[in-house]
Amino acid sequence: MLQAFEESRTIQNDLQSNAEDVQSIVASYEELKKQVTLLQMNKSTKMLVDLGNDMFVRAKVDDLSKIFVSIGLGFFAELTLEEALQVSDRWIHYYTDIEESIMAEQASVSSKSRVVSETMEMLTALQGPEFRSKYSETG
To answer: Residue 80: is its pLDDT beyond 60?
Structure first.
């Protein structure tokens, strides 16, 4: 019983960690949407351009019609600003669904953990001195 309780704590911690990771991903896509919206308002802008190996250079960008968006594993896709907004919306929706399923799983594990905890408390109470004395006389 104690092992099941410890396993549920481990599962709860893992789910919490996963939820935080997903929330971070959603936040990054929301930031992408915010930045793309700002770019749509400008004709040109100054920004830091990544040259690789953590080297950046200041640049004036005159053509803001397309941007490169990280798609993971070091790969980038060249997208129009509208495409970037659509992609970020799709990923936000996808990861929000994942976050909701993680939260539902957390609630389920928490509920089961509470039942295990209450059962352990009842078993501990049953093993108290009044229980032993009451049933040792009749048994």
So the answer is: yes
